[in-house]
Amino acid sequence: MSVSHRFVCGFTRTLYSLSPFSSNTTHSSLFPLTMPRKQKQGAAKTHLWVEKPKSDGPSTSTSASEGDFSNANAEAVTDRLRTLTVAESKESTAVEVGSAPVDKSTVLGSGTQTESTGKPTAALSKLFSGKLLESFTVDNSTCSLAQIRATFYPKFENEKSDHEVRAKMIELVSNGLATMEVSLKHSGSLFMYAGHEGGAYAKNSYGNIYTAVGVFVLGRMFREAWGSQANKKQADFNDFLERNRMCISMELVTAVLGDHGQRPCEDYVVVTAVTELGCGKPKFYSTPYIIAFCRKWRLPTNHVWLFSTRKSVTSFFAAYDALCEEGTATPVCKALDEVSDISVPGSKDHIRVQGEILEGLVARIVSRKSSEHMEQVLRDYPPPPVEGADLGPSLREICAAHRNDEKQQMKALLESIGTSFCPNYLDWFGFEAPDSHSRNADGSVLSKFLQARPADLSTAKLQEMVRLLKEKEKDVALKCYHNIHKTNSLSSDNFHFKMVIHVRSDKAFRRYQNEMRNNPGLWPLYRGFFVDLNLFKANKERVVKFSKEPDAGSGSNGDLTKDGLAVEDANLMIKLKFLTYKIRTFLIRNGLSVLFNKDEVAYKDYYLRQMKIWHTSAAKQRELSKMLDEWAVFIRRKHGHKQLSSATYLSEAEPFLERYAKRSPKNQALIGSAGSLVRAEDFMAIIKGGKDEEGDLEPEKDIAPSSPAMIVKEAVVKDQGLIVFFPGIPGCAKSALCKEILTAPGKLGDDRPINSLMGDLIKGKYWAKVAEERSKKPYSILLADKNAPNEEVWSRIEHMCRKSKAAAVPVVPDSEGTESNPFSLDALAVFIFRVLQRANHPGNLDKSSPNAGFVLLMFYNLYDGKNRKEFEAELIERFGSVVKMPLLESSRPPLPKTVRSTLEEGLNLYKLHSKRHGRCSQSHLYIYL
Asked: How far apart are CA 511 and CA 530, in angstroms?
C-alpha cells in the first residue's frame, strides 16, 4: 500500500484533541530561599529587620538566578528579620544606608523646582517639549544607567502538557526531591508598590485610577492593622522600601474596577511577591519569607498549603479532580486542609472578603526544605494583632461621591489616605499647571539609551533585552516617560525617565522563552515591568571605570540545576481553575461579544468549544448548554442589540444565576453560589475605554496543550456535511491528496457524495464558490483544494459550517516548525523543490514561473508569528481537530548549509522588501489562495 493510500485509510483516525487539564497559565514559579541554620526559636518579639549594606559602585553580584539567593544572601535576609524593629519599637527606625553614586554635573537653576510648588519652570517646559532632550547627543562620554523599579514574576509556561506536569510533580515529591506548594488564586488585578517615590504600578501603567485605588486600599490595610500607629508605620514602610529598593506585588481585589467572577464583599489586597531590586536582577522572596515579611509589617497574606509526601500530593490532585466542576471556596479549602502536610491560613479569608466563587489554585514545585522553613517562620512570626481604628470613608463611598470626574476620584482617594503614605501626587497629576506638558518622553529616548555606554552590568543586560524586543517582538510596547520625581537633578547632560515594558500578548512571552533557550544569558521578561533610566555625561575616569566592569555575575540563566533539580523541574507549576468561576468569566462574560455581535448559534459554538478544551464532563456539558441557551435568550431579549458591558455584567448575570439555581439542587450545584450580589453601578471607578488594566475584560482564550494527544474519532456524523481544507503552502501535496481521496476505493468510508474544488480552476472568488456549493449540497463532503493560510479564511470556513451545519477538518503537512513559524526550513525547501518540478501547472506556479520563489516566501511569511504549537492549538480551538500529512522522516540528515543559508537570505530579503513596499495586497494574494 502506498503512503498516500495508507494516509487516506487512516484519515478519520488521525484527529488530534486537547490533553486533560488545559488551563490558561498566568502564574510563574517562585524560587525558595534557604532558611538560616542558627535562627533562634520563640523570639518573635525580638526579631528585627536590618538594612542591606550597599556598595559605592555598580552592583555586579547578580550571578544568582532570580529569587535564588546564595547562602550569604540568605543569612543577610535572616539578619534583616532579626535587627530592624517594626512592630514593637516606639521610636522611628533609624537606618544607616550608603548612598548611591550621584552625578555631580551642574544643575540648571531655571530647571529645578520643589514638589510643593506644583508649577513647572521654563527648563521643565523645555524638557517636556522635547527641545532639551533633542540637544542631548550621544558620544563617547554618554552613559546610561538602568535599574528595575518594579516587577512581578516572569511568565513561565511548561513545555509539557498539564497531565505530564502533574505526573512529574508527583514523582519529584515522592522521591523526596521537592515539595509542592499550593496557594489560592484571588480574582483581582496586579498591583505593585515600591514606596511613595519608587512608585505605584498596575500591570502595564502607572499614575491612573488603578494605582490610585491600589494605594488607597493598601494604605487602608495599614490603618486596619496598626490603628493609632498607622501614620507612623506607613511612613516607616515607605522609607524601608525606598532605602532597600524593594517592591511588593499584590492581588488587588475590588468591586470598583470591573467584574471578574464575583464582586467581592470587601475591597482588599493580598501580597503575592516581595522583591529586592538592588542594582541587579530581581530577587524574589520564597513564600516563608513573604509570610515573615508580611507579619512584621502586618500586611495581608494568602492561604498556602504544602505537600511533601506522595500520599498528600496524590490526594491533592484527587481532591481537585473531584471538586473541579462544582467546587467553591468552603469545600475546596476544607479538603486541602485535610490532605495537606502544612496549612497556613491567609490573613484575609477568601470566603469572608471575596466570597464562595473561587477562581483557582496555583500549584508549583519548591525546595524540599520548604516545609522546615515554613515551620520555622510560623514559630518565630505568629499572626500579628489587628488594632482596628476609625478607617474613614471607604473606597466605594469615595468613588460614589465623585462619580462624574475620574481626576476627582483619584484626588479624593489619595487625599483620604493621607500624606504619611502618599506625600505627593506627581505620578497622577504632574505639576498641574496650564502650561504643563505630557509626561510622555521623546521617542528618541530608547535609541539614545541603546547607543549609550552601560554604566554597569545590569544596564548592559537590560540593553540586550530591550534591543531584542525592539528588533523582533511586535507584541511588546516600549514606552518612556519623564520621571517627575527626579526633576531636581535635571540638567542639560542628566536626564531621568521611566520605561514601561508592556507585553501585549502571551505569545510574546512564549517567543521570548525560545530566545532565552538559544541565549541563556538573557534576563527574563517579567510581567509588570518598570525600569528607571538615567542618561548622563561622565568624565573620562568614570567612563574608563564603566568600561572595565567585570564580566562575572551576569545573572546567566544557563544554570543546569537549582535546589538540586533540573531547571525545568524546579520551574514546574500548574494553574487549576474551577468551573463555577469559568462559567461566569469565560462562558458568560467573554462570550458577550460573540452573542451580541453574531447570534445565538455562534455563541453556542463558542461555549461548546471552550468546554471541549477544558474536557468538561458530558453531563456538565448538557447542564451548561441548557443554562447558557436560556441565558442567551434572556439577555438578548432584554438588551436587544446593545451589548451588555463586561465591566458590570454581573448586574444581570448574578440575578439570572440565582433564579436558575433555586429551581433545583442540581442547578444549585452547577452554579456553585449565587445571591450575594454587591450592587456596583453607584460606585464603579471611571475607567477610560472600559478596559481593565489586567486586560481581564478582554476575551480570554484558553491555551491549547503543547502536544495534542492522538485519538480515534468515535463516529463520523453522517447527517451533516464536511469541509476538508488545507492551511498549507504551495507544493504541500494538497491536490495530490485530493485526487487520491477521489480515486481511493471506499473514499472516506461512507456514502456521502464527495466533491473537490480546485482553486486553480475556479474563476472568481473561490470561497464564495465553496459557500455556494455547500448550500446546494449541505450533506456532501467538499475537498477545498486551495491554500487556506490566514485567520480570515478560517473564519469564513467557520461561518460556512455554522450556516450549513457542517464540520470542518484542517489538513496540514507535518513539520516541527521553527520558533516563529509552524513550518521548518526543511519543509519550505521540499515545497519549493516540488513547485520547481512542476510543468504546465493550471495556476501558473511551476518551473517556468518568473516569481515562484517570491510566491513561496510570501506564503511562508503568512504564518510568521506562530510556532507549531500555537498554530495547531488555534486550529484545534476553532475546528476541534487537526489531521497531519506525513512529509519528512524524523531521522533525515540535516538540511545542507548552502540550501539553509539561501533560504534564510531569501526570507531576510523578503522581509526587507515588505518593509519598503508593504505586504502584498489582498487581491494579489487571492490569486494564489
From this structure: 20
